[in-house]
Design the sequence.
């Protein structure tokens, strides 16, 4: 049942729920009427890479004996998984290109392949940026095996959208990380909620006066 539920969650883009259900079913898989076990493990790797944080990925996938056994039959999925985990970003980008082509040809993942590729890229960029206070665009470009113009346009897009906490110094060609402060975030949330409450009270007072 978990395989059916996981497949449904994957098909509606709830990859976190899908990954949890698939991982729970790895050792008890019997749903051969849906897919073979190798394909099931491939799906599990794909969505776990996106849905799990680094520690969960290590615990549940990298160190998962059942998954490791099958990965010998899935060399591309294995390279994809381990290149991200081992911070080999240039190889990871090459493997992501292969995964993208596979997603395009998959009936469950085709509707989501653009979303998936974008989100995995953000995850990889964030993983690299977390290790530094600042780094050059040239270093990032070399790390991912792409041009400076490409990495610049990608970072600008994701920073502007609030998906990466960093800023780009165009003059110096430097990316400066800007990690969100937890307390500052709570303070800003409190201020926003207070403003909303005041606005509601003012609207309510007008209604009562009328």
Sequence:
């Amino acid at each position: 049942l978990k395989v059916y539920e996981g497949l449904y969650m994957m098909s509606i883009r709830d990859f976190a729920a899908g990954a949890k259900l698939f991982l729970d079913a790895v050792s008890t898989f019997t749903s051969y009427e849906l897919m073979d076990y190798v394909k099931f493990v491939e799906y599990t790797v794909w969505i776990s890479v996106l849905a799990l944080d680094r520690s969960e990925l290590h615990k549940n996938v990298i160190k998962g004996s059942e998954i490791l056994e099958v990965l010998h039959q899935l060399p591309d999925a294995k390279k994809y998984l381990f290149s991200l985990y081992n911070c080999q970003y240039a190889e990871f980008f090459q493997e992501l290109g292969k995964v993208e082509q596979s997603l395009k040809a998959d009936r469950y993942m085709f509707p989501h392949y653009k979303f998936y590729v974008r989100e995995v890229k953000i995850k990889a960029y964030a993983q690299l940026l977390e290790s530094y206070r600042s780094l050059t665009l040239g270093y990032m470009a070399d790390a991912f095996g792409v041009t400076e113009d490409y990495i610049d346009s990608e970072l600008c897009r994701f920073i502007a959208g609030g998906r990466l906490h960093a800023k780009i110094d165009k003059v110096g060609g430097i990316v400066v990380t800007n990690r969100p402060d937890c307390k500052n975030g709570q303070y800003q949330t409190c201020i926003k909620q207070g403003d909303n409450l005041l606005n509601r009270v003012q609207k309510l007072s007008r209604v009562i006066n009328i």
User: Anything to note?
Assistant: The mean pLDDT is 91. DSSP finds eleven helices and three strands in the chain.
